[in-house]
Amino acid sequence: MKVTAVVVLGLLGTLTLFFKAQASTSLDVLWQAAANWTGTLPCGGWDCQCLFRNPKGCCCVAVPVFQLEEATFMRMMGLWKDLNSLNNKIQEITGGRNVAFMATMTPITGCFGPFNKNVSISYCNVSLNQAYGYNPALGTFTAPRAGLYSFSYTVYSNVGAEGERLYHRVQLMKDGQVIASSWEDNREDAEDSASQTVLLPLKQGNQVYLELVLGRFLCADTQGYNSFSGYLVYPLSDI
Ligand SMILES: *[C@@H]1O[C@H](CO)[C@@H](O)[C@H](O)[C@H]1NC(C)=O
Ligand SMILES: *[C@@H]1O[C@H](CO)[C@@H](O)[C@H](O)[C@H]1NC(C)=O
Ligand SMILES: *[C@@H]1O[C@H](CO)[C@@H](O)[C@H](O)[C@H]1NC(C)=O
């Protein structure tokens, strides 16, 4: 635009000098002269035809304004597309990020077990279940999305008196595979507890749960000390 203005001013200056002899510098005369000019008008981006020869009823900056409008529009479209894809990425990352659960065994006065097979433990007292990944009826957590997950559990048992056999083994399972376990087999201490935390990369739909191993038992958890919790540390798009 600046260059165009300079060119037009230059042209007007030249025309002024040219018609100095007529002792008139009124714009009308300049326009007349330009209109009478038979050579090429050096107008740059301006529409000279419009400006000097046919000024009535035509926008002389129509072409540059149109070009500016076009360029601005294209730029806006580009920004709009970028903004949209950024928005989608944010949605993808934050959407379903809040996955967490916490559950305890409901208090038992007697013992849970022994059973003649490995039995999954249903921690029925659910205090948190964001994204509903945990099913208290089965005691199973199903990963709602792929990600790195953290799981913790605490095993507690009290068989009453010294001399009684404290005998349990609880294992954290991922789709039938043992990931971690905690156990006890002694007659010295009647009451014991142990905790473990693991980090597990999971695919969507992977299942994590705790099993009591066959022949073993958990007793007198009157406070809900046996617990199972987990949460999504961060999502993974593909594992
Ligand atoms: C332009 O041409 C017209 C005739 O076509 C003439 O009357 C007029 O004086 C001319 N103007 C200048 C500034 O040369
Ligand atoms: C469930 O757990 C909460 C603590 O999170 C406890 O206050 C409540 O008594 C428990 N309820 C049952 C039925 O075990
Ligand atoms: C039960 O768990 C024990 C200990 O991990 C294992 O040796 C055994 O194979 C399991 N039984 C079945 C049927 O999976």
From TrEMBL:
PROSITE patterns: C1Q. Residues 1-23 form the signal peptide. It is found in: Secreted. Pfam families: C1q (PF00386). It comes from the Eukaryota. One of its GO terms (cellular component) is synapse. The keyword rRNA-binding does not apply. InterPro entries: C1q_dom, Cerebellin_Synaptic_Org, Tumour_necrosis_fac-like_dom. Keywords: Secreted, Signal. One of its GO terms (biological process) is maintenance of synapse structure. Residues 94-239 form the C1q domain. The keyword Secreted applies. This is Complement C1q-like protein 4.
